[in-house]
Amino acid sequence: MQENLQKLNFMDRSDFAGIKETVKELFGKSEDAFVNPPFYCDYGKRIEVGKNFFANYNCTFLDVAKIKIGGNCQMAPNVAIYTAEHPIHPVSRNSAYEYGKEVTVGDNVWFGGNAVVCPGVHIGDNVVSGAGSVVTRDILDWCIAAGNPCRVIRKITEKDSRRLFRDEAIDGRHGRIFWSGWIFRMKGWKDMFSDYHVHTEFSDDSVYPMEQVVRDAIDRGMDEICFTDHVDYGIKQDWDCGKPMLYRGEEPLANVDYPVYIARLKELQEKYREKIRIKIGIEFGMQVHTIPLYRALFHKYPFDFVILSVHQVDDREFWTQDFQRGKSQKEYNEKYYEEMLNVIREYRDYSVLGHMDLIARYDEKGEYPFEKVKPILSEILRTVISDGRGIEFNTSYHRYGLKNTTPSMDILKLYREFGGEIITIGSDSHKAEHLGAYIKEAGHLLKELGFQYFCTYEKQRPIFHGL
User: Fold this and answer.
1) 3-state secondary structure (DSSP) of residue 138
2) Is the CB of residue 456 less than 8 Å from the CB of residue 196?
3) pLDDT tens readout for residues 143-187
4) Which of 286, 302, 309, 406 could hold 354 in an S-S bridge, CB 3.0 to 4.6 Å?
5) Which of 86, 89, 299, 444 is catalytic?
6) Alpha-carbon torsion 215, 217, 220, 222, what sign?
7) What's the rounded Cα separation, in Å, for the pair 467 and 189?
8) Catalytic annotation present for 86
9) Distance separating alpha carbons of residues 235 and 356, to the nearest angstrom
């Protein structure tokens, strides 16, 4: 490796064919890649790049772990991608302990000069990362992001296909051709009918057979469905926890039977693949003290989509009034949102926040004034957006007889005001009559509020569909 790296860095820069061949020998995988020397890396063999990769002068890739980059990616001078990590505590760090976290970059990504990508980051397709950016967190598809730390500034839209970076008009056809595939896709899915919050017999509060859900969804003309059965550590137990199962009446207080759940979903995906898309989701009912259990669970199974909900605080549930009992309305509302904020500050392996103002569903004292919780809601929503996550529109408020939407119109407007764009729509169904209910109405309402897209998910990545 060092021989190839040294060879590259002393090559004539006009020897294009020679440089490409040397890069091919240096990298673990490359196809027509060109690197302007000098270039620096640890191993080279852990670097994989797609077609038409270009790195300008003085780029540094520390490939302790794999660095995987898609096709048509460009890097300005001095771009650095780091995978090496060290412990935070000085005693541990001084022990010389080192580890690596993989970095992945999608297709059609452009990095400005002096951009830095930190360990463990995933950058989606069709992204522009501005000069001097320090990318510490994931970046979604079709975004312009910049700053230290790097944050999403805005989405890349159809208008960008007709202009250069600083709004000058472009007269070429390539941008239009590049965009047209995506806009056609959007039009083709504009009226897509999907439900992204569905419970079955695998949840302790539902007896709806999973295969019957699939059949009902097909009968109702649905294109896609995502199953999101319950996990509520602190209240419920895993089937294989090694302890006697707890019961509420005759019902076991049990989480999803994960191996059976995943196997059943894969079986149904194959059986009905010509009729409907079935995604593997889960609903995490989280509390701060249960975060380690969810970390372990998330990395064990191939979830497409994770709803992060707060169903209880201090192991006390809302629907039973155990949590609210003995507290003022102010106390239990504020404590609920404080728990939510503390959870998302520590945990990021989720897709959307579920029914954000769930506490309102079980508030027997009536609607709590939005203005009193607006500051903490603002902090929650800004954190969600900066982390590249989203929220859900939950249509169950209809059947619960609530006067407001879930989340409330005020929360939806605030999310939109802050630039939030990732939003899923789900019925929170537990019975046949709930499935797909009011989904299309929700889409019309979101469009009226100024949202342009709703999302579905695949392998934890959002897919945007026009409203």
Assistant:
1) coil
2) yes
3) 999 999 999 988 887 677 655 555 554 443 333 323 333 332 343
4) 309
5) 86
6) negative
7) 9
8) yes
9) 20
